[in-house]
Design a protein that fits this description.
The protein has about 100 residues and is of the alpha+beta class. It contains 4 helices and 4 strands. A two-stranded antiparallel sheet has the order 1-2. The longest helix has 10 residues. The chain is globular and about 35 Å long.
Length: about 100
């Protein structure tokens, strides 16, 4: 039987601490997000480190075309109207993982 991992809260300045560049929370793991999606020509472009909930939500709420044309910096993503409700929630949350977030296409 698999045990659910405990919520992680790293002490400030500890070596295990990493920050999501979108929600700015201290998290255990981040993944690389291409600011311009690879499918839209951003394969070798700039990337940012996002926590799994933010990475998943960005791709759920915004299309690759929107990301390439309107939200190609982390500052643009932080101001995106489509993400405001989510960002307000996640910044107050200790969630490390969200499942079943992919939009059916």
């Amino acid at each position: 039987m698999a045990r659910r991992p405990k919520l992680f809260e790293a002490a400030p300045g500890s070596p295990a601490e990493t920050r999501c560049q979108l929600c700015e929370r201290a998290v255990r793991h981040t993944s690389r997000h291409h600011l311009v999606p690879r499918e839209e020509g951003g394969r070798y472009g700039p990337t940012v480190d996002l926590c799994q909930p933010c990475h998943s939500s960005v791709h759920l709420l915004l299309t690759n075309k929107e990301l390439a044309r309107r939200y190609h910096t982390v500052e643009d993503l932080q101001r995106a109207e489509e993400l405001q409700k989510y960002l307000h929630w996640i910044r107050r949350s200790r969630v490390e993982r969200i499942t079943n977030r992919r939009r059916r296409r």
